[in-house]
Amino acid sequence: MARLEAIAADLTRRYGYRPIETPLFEQVAVFERGIGEVTDVVEKELFRLAPRSEEKEAWALRPEPTAGIARAYVQHGMQTLPQPVKLTMVGPMFRYDRPQAGRYRQFWQFDVEAIGDAGPAIDAEIIELANRFYTEAGVPGIDLRLNSIGDPQCRPAYIAELTAYYRDHVADLPPLERARLERNPLRLLDSKEPRMAVINVEAPKITDHLCTACADHFDGVRAHLDALGVAYTLAPELVRGLDYYTRTTFEIFPAGETGQQAAIGGGGRYDGLVELLGGHPTPGIGFGLGLDRVLLVTRLAEGAADETAPLAVVVSADPAATADRLVVATELRAAGLRARADLSTRKLGRQLEAASRDGAHFAVILGADAAGGTQLKDLKAGTQRVVAAGDLVKELERAARTHHHGLGEAAKR
Ligand code: HAM
Hints:
The chain is α/β, with parallel strands linked by helices. The protein contains 16 helices and 15 strands. Helices cover 38% and strands 20% of the residues. The strands form three sheets. The chain has an eight-stranded mixed sheet, sandwiched between helices. It starts with a helix and ends with a helix. Residues 404-413 have low confidence and may be disordered. Bound molecules: histidyl-adenosine monophosphate.
């Protein structure tokens, strides 16, 4: 996770985004108004905090960061800053759901928001940034799915047509979907109910109903993505699960996977959100990438474990000499090296075994050399040699730089 965070921090700095921190909990109204009351995230997945008797406001843990960031934009007068205001965050989000592989109640998102630019060039810039994150994180391949869901000009007519279509199938709708039909028919398009998949195949498509302004914007996004060489698949069924979206929406899957569960990121434009939360009409676009899922697909977890393995473990022939071992390990750490002292009083053989199991590259063996030097054992290469006590830091630094071959090569010389 730390490695993914470092990649996110480096990328967003290069693209000109500034870090923002918002509270882990907000007034429920921010989520209800921003994300929409008739959404899974608010209806089913919000962790609501038990109200205290003296408090009028209701609070909930943040299920996503965009509503809170837009709230902060309004509250802190960010419309007076040069636009767009480009903000980024990495942090935990909370959604109540049945925990399962890749779906957690607390999960981490890398989030990016550009508020105050109507696009379409910035849409492409943001999508390319998401793309680059996956590349740098080592995701083997992605499928980027792209759509436009129109705006308040063209969506009402589409929604009317969609509602009529679902009314024709009302007898086949699962209970929750039937209840939502009149309140938010768009939600039926991304329903997780298996029965809905069949009904949705024939449903009218939003991209056949875009007004000229939205169609032009969508053409612009695609032209910019083409200019950048970013590949995408058009996905007219992609409406996303949050109500604030307008025009551009996108979702990213590991190559070859499409299930909602597998999405490693998603985002889109939200040109009405800032106004909805009490600000001036202000366009915005952003994305959120699920870092837990990115870890799952990259197996970076293994790489990260390696990174925490010590470069050297300090052991000694005298099982009782823990102070000597601690002193040497402390010197190595002070020099910036990853070192562990074996603080047990077990025999040397056992200390060495533990060092190997730990994934350590070297064992620094004290008190085993009659001439007073320190034995440096390369546990990976199986080589060993004597190093003068004063040279230990220098030798290990060099070995760390030349990585896995450092001492092996030196020992041969
Ligand atoms: P979202 O699609 O709800 O969008 O979530 C973004 C990503 O968070 C998902 O693609 C997935 O990788 C990850 N994710 C969501 N729920 C879970 C979970 N329960 N367990 C693990 N990972 C999960 C948003 O949240 C929007 N705020 C994105 C956005 C930013 N749109 C504009 N700006």
